[in-house]
Design a protein that fits this description.
It contains four helices and no strands. By secondary structure, the protein is mainly α.
């Protein structure tokens, strides 16, 4: 039987994955580009490849989260559309699933207050770090496009 993943576990795991992606993007943008290890095309390839790897690894967890909300796992495919994903992902993080057995099994264990606190803290940190990584990426892309690096 497919498993269910609660909101606390999902938010904590997603936040840690986003933090890893943002740190890798900043590293590529601020270190590898400046050291002339990556060209402009190499930077785009690095960011796209690492982002795809994070997305592919995160896909099964998102399907389990959808099952916790009593939706079939295949409905996670709607996250492939970015405008829809922007709306759905926060719901997956903070919407509680039913506390009873649904079509996909028994409910996951309730998250402890420490897990909820860590999940919310890491989520806020992930949002801020993502903004910083996006800025570094666009700055490096711009400097490479004008030939300043």
């Amino acid at each position: 039987m497919p498993t269910r993943v609660g909101a606390g576990t999902y938010t904590l795991t997603m936040s840690l994955a986003v933090i890893a992606y943002a740190l890798a993007t900043r590293y590529a943008s601020e270190t590898l580009v400046v050291d002339h290890v990556l060209s402009r095309a190499g930077l785009h390839y690095w960011v796209a490849t690492f982002g795809t790897m994070v997305g592919v690894m995160f896909w099964p967890l998102s399907a389990s989260r959808m099952r916790d909300l009593n939706f079939p796992g295949w409905t996670v495919n709607i996250l492939a559309f970015p405008l829809i994903a922007v709306i759905i992902l926060p719901l997956l993080c903070f919407l509680s699933g039913p506390r009873w057995t649904n079509d996909y099994g028994d409910p996951p264990a309730r998250s402890s207050i420490l897990k909820v606190f860590c999940a919310c803290t890491f989520f806020a940190f992930a949002v801020l770090l993502t903004y910083s990584a996006l800025f570094a990426y666009h700055r490096a892309d711009y400097l490479l496009s004008i030939g300043a690096l």
